[in-house]
Write a structure and sequence with these properties.
Order of helices and strands: HHEEEEHEEEEEHEEHEEEEEH
Number of helices: 6
Mean pLDDT: 88
Structural class: alpha+beta
Distance between the termini: 123 Å
Oligomer: single chain
Strand order of the largest sheet: 4-3-2-1-6-7-8-9-5
Number of strands: 16
Largest sheet: 9 strands, antiparallel
Shape: elongated
Strand content: 25-35%
Number of domains: 2
Radius of gyration: 31 Å
Amino acid sequence: MAKKKTKIKLVKKLADPFVLTLLGAIVSLSILAWLRLGPQFKERQNQPWLKEKTDLIDKIEIKNNQEQHVLIKKEGRWLAASEDNLPADQDKVNQLLTSLAELKRDRLVSQNEKYHQKFGLDQENAIELKVFQGQNQLLHLLVGEPGPDFESDYLRLPDQKEVYLSNIAIRSHLTQPQWKNLKITKFYSDQIEKVVIQRDGQSEKEFDPEKAKDLINQLTGLQASDALPLKEEEQDQYGLNQSSLIITFKLKDNQPAVKLKLGKENDRQQRYCQRDNEKVVYLLPSWINQKIDQAVEQLFSAK
């Protein structure tokens, strides 16, 4: 009986106009607060994973099928740690970092793990991406097949079954066959002031760019077939200690000169080349060797 009376009193209080007005005001304010702050909260929840953190990244691991690539930032320079710690292609790394700064999930596609294989997000087919700052893991992500517009990719977090479309395409930046730098020269022909050539240990000869344009055309934007770490004791093995051909490009606007030492050829007719004093030996494509020698011979035989 006492409980029944209590309930009746409570109902009467709730029916009081003042109480009803107060409750209505609270509900209205809650709705207004959600309408105002809800989208902002949702937006904050869907910020790029690495927003304003890419400068902190010092290690990136990419596992694709049976291949694993590891990039490490050391003294401000990226190295391909999984490829003999050779210098990494800075352009490729910068493109990846730019994409990582923007990457976020855009649209929920599925909450059913049965579809993981369909989207290339099962453990066997997914590209696994890990990003670190020191020992702190900033991001761990699985990237699958390209999205229907090829401007996005399917992705998910490893411990979650939800599949999302990304806001940008990231997969193409992760499927590099190699990350080590193969770019030997990056200058353009109009940046060259002089070309200096030393052949067979003889005195150096200097040439104007116009006269040496055939040689410049061969060596501008030069890309190697491969690159290997170079140890001091291996210089003779590659014919670089007493190189038969040294070509130096003096650049305009006080840019540092670029010196190329060309050594022996391997059994595939690829020529060993060293840029400046880098601890790297590049392998020049076989098709370019004869063209370089012909251009140099033409310069030396000209009257």
